Structure formats: C-alpha cells, structure tokens
Amino acid sequence: MKRVIFLFNHDAAHQVSHLAGVAAATAMADAPVQAVIAVSSPAMAAAVRGIMGEAAAARAIWLNLDLHPALDAAAGVVNRIAPVRRLLRLRWNAERLANCAMLVSTERTCLTVRRHMPAPVPRFAVIPHGAGDRRVSYHPDFARFDLILVAGEKVRAGMIAAGVNADHVRLVGYPKFDTVDIARGPALFANRRPTFVYNPHFDPHLSSWYRFGPDLLRWFAATEAGRAYNLVFAPHVMLFRKKLHISPEYRTARIRPDVPAEALGAENILIDTGSSALFDMRYTLAADAYIGDMSSQIYEFLAIPRPAFFLDGWSHTSDEGEETRMHWRAGPVARSVAELTALLPDWRQIGEAYRAEQERLFGWTFDQSGAASTERAAQAIIAAVIRE
C-alpha cells in the first residue's frame, strides 16, 4: 500500500479547501493507496475533517506535526514576522514526512524539508492555492515538484513559460469549487441596499489597505453617499494576523493600519478580520459587487459574473508586466478613493459592460471539463504513485 501524505502545515486554514477535498477523494478511492493527513494543530485538523467528511476522514491516517514545546515557545515572537513555526514543523518532522511515496501540499514552503529527509526521498506534488496572475504563481521553484496539479490553462501555460517541465503538469480544475455550493450566498444585511465586498491583499507592497483602506471604510460609514450601500470588509485572512507586515518578495515592510472607529459601529458595514468566512467564499458569493487589488479571490468571485472594481496604489512603481494583474481587465481600476467612489453609482451598468471579459478570464483560469476537480486531482496523484 503506497502512502500519500497531504500536508496542512499553515498557521491559518485558508488553504484547506484547496486540498482537503482531494485528500478525501484519494482516501475513498478503490486503489492501493493510503491517504495520510498531516496537520499543524487541532484547529487545522477540525477544518480538514469538516471538508473531508467523517467517512473519508475515518479511512485516512492522521499525523500531528508536533513541535517540541521549547521550539514552539522560542518561535512564538519571531513567528509574528516570518513563518518560523511552519518551517520548524517541517524540519522537526522530516523523518515522519519522508515515510510516503508522495507528499502533496498547496505551497512551495514544503520543498525546504527535502534536504532534511533520509533517503529515499519521496516525490513532491503541489496543488497551488488560488489561481492568481502574479509572478509568485509561476515561481521557478515549481520546477522542483514532480507533479503540479493546476486549475486551468492560464496557470499551465504560465508554469511552462517559467521553466516547469510540461510533462509534470496536469490540468484538474479548481478543487475548492467542489467543496462550496456556488449558489448565491445568504443575505448578509436586513436591508435591500447593494452589498459590496472589499477584499484587500495582505502584502504591504500590493495591498490597497495601507494607502486607501481606512479612508474607503470611512466613506461607506460616514458619508450619505456611502451609506446608500452595504460593505463587507473581508481582507485576506493574513492581513490582521500581524501588525508589522514584511514582504521578502518586494523587500518592503509596513505597519498595518487598524479599522477606523467610524466603521466599527456602522450599521451598513460588516467587519470580519479572522473567521473562516474570509476563505469559504461566503462573502464573495453573497456580495453584489467586488472591490479589491491583487487578491486571487477575484477569480472565485467571478464564478458568478458581477461588477468588480480595483484600487491601484503600486503599479506605477512596479517593474512587473500587465500580465501580473490580468484580473484588472474584469472591471475599472481607480487610483484614489475619490476616483473609485465616483464610479459606484453606476455599478450595475459597469458590471454589464465587463461581463464578457469576466467570462473569458474565468474560462482561461479554470478548466471545467470532465469529472469533479477533486476526483481528477486524486486520480492524477494515484496514477503517479502507482506508476513509480
């Protein structure tokens, strides 16, 4: 029986839905493969079980990635700045993680454990979390994986252009969609006002929150024009886990602004800085329109085409090409809060004007042909393991 380890090693649960459904499909498959679920914490285990379901969870082996208490305590302070615990868990559990035919993750961090593993080193597979446009989605490190399971042709083409062996890439669709009911979400407010969701990224170089976010919330909370709408403030789950954000990729650091007082008590604003609703598509499905910057959640929002708006506070200082912000073709791009809010009264008409382009972007990003994505991914993993 070949063991496949599904690695859930993050400090937050926002990547679970990209992998847990695939783990469940693998566990339930009629194949000589044993699914092993490696988790970083009891909370992470609960999140994974919630998606896998009890039948699949019972057929899997569970592996707790325990960290020595002294190491855990020592890492506590530094972990607020850098993902030290994540790296230490990999190093501490290297031998246990080596006990498999394949290790499957949603991120490149898992590659660091390879050099600490005893021989024979297992094969590594990745299901990238999200399906965005930035260069991080096509990092050269992906070439070090033996199997890459991607959502659609956009990511496949980008991977190959970045030097990934085309024979290692499989098109499986977006497993997260299999774990979510893509019907419009529930009403979040008792009134009938249009509801916008504001979804800023956490990276201090890319995010609109640092430059524009508090003023945007003040506009919705404290102006007559803004109170004509509802707003869900649903940032990337990592934005409010730290006060100081450091971007190694862009070599910058910034102190994260807090939510302004005016917004905290506003009856037309829902503020969520840490719950699972930030990544289970509840808000993106329930909203009438989207405001964002560089988060790949825009593509999840476009599962139902609707108006989208973008706040740009950085592209004029960037040497990255327009292909890294392709999603900005899904709606108008503003470079100030005043410019953005002037557009909002025409949100319905703007949505219709961009609908065809949104549908094209969604089709380029997500392959929806064939069986469920979780099944396609599981079968690709099983085939690779059995062939070896």
Topology:
Blueprint: E1 2-8, H1 16-28, E2 33-39, H2 42-52, H3 54-59, E3 61-64, H4 69-78, H5 84-92, H6 94-97, E4 102-105, E5 123-126, E6 147-150, H7 153-161, E7 169-171, H8 175-178, E8 195-199, H9 213-222, E9 230-233, E10 244-247, E11 252-255, H10 261-264, E12 269-271, H11 282-286, E13 289-292, H12 297-301, E14 308-311, E15 333-334, H13 337-343, H14 347-365, H15 373-387
Parallel strand pairs: 1-2, 1-4, 2-3, 4-5, 5-6, 6-7, 8-9, 8-13, 9-12, 13-14, 14-15
Antiparallel strand pairs: 10-11
Spatially, the strands of the biggest sheet line up as: 3-2-1-4-5-6-7
Strand content: 15-25%
Task: Please tally the β strands and state the result.
Answer: 15
**Quaternary status:** single chain
Instruction: Determine the fraction of residues in helical runs and give it as a percent range.
Output: 25-40%
Radius of gyration: 21 Å
Q: Spell the H/E element sequence.
A: EHEHHEHHHEEEHEHEHEEEHEHEHEEHHH
Reading off the top of the CATH hierarchy, the class of the largest domain is best stated as Alpha Beta
Number of alpha- plus pi-helical segments? 15
The overall average pLDDT, rounded, is 92
- What ranges have pLDDT less than 50 throughout 5 or more consecutive residues? none
Q: Could you give a short account of the major beta sheet? A: 7 strands, parallel
Search tags:
single chain; 388 residues; alpha/beta; Rossmann fold; 2 domains; seven-stranded parallel sheet; six-stranded parallel sheet; 15 helices; 15 strands; 34% helix; 16% strand; globular
